[in-house]
Design a protein that fits this description.
With about 120 residues, the chain is of the alpha+beta class. Helix content is about 20%, strand content about 30%. It has two domains: about 35 residues, no CATH class; about 70 residues, SUI1-like domain (Translation Initiation Factor Eif1). A hairpin with an 8-residue loop joins strand 4 and strand 5. It starts with a strand and ends with a strand.
Length: about 120
Amino acid sequence: MKRSKQGGLVYSTAAGRMCPGCLRPAPECVCKDRSRLRDGGDGFVRLSRETKGRKGAGVTLVRGLPLADADLTKLSKQLKARCGVGGTVKDGVIELQGDQRDKLKEVLEKEGYKVKLAGG
């Protein structure tokens, strides 16, 4: 069993991932702000390009940002303006139209994130 810095249960082998707010298993969370359940990952922001399910149109995916939903939406808006493209946020992943990995790597590193290019 792991415990968080505040003393709450984070993970249990019996129940899996635990919500730090209500201390219930993640699927049974009753908190209003479920964004805190997002896994921070290994500390790297991963940039990848994907065309699957988009009829050949490529998008750049930004994964691994340890931000709440509201902050993720703000950052998404800034990144879209910086690259001059459209995009969206789905399930904690920022999607930007086109191959924007090089621009995004530069911008995110200036923001203080550790960035890795993932995929081909």
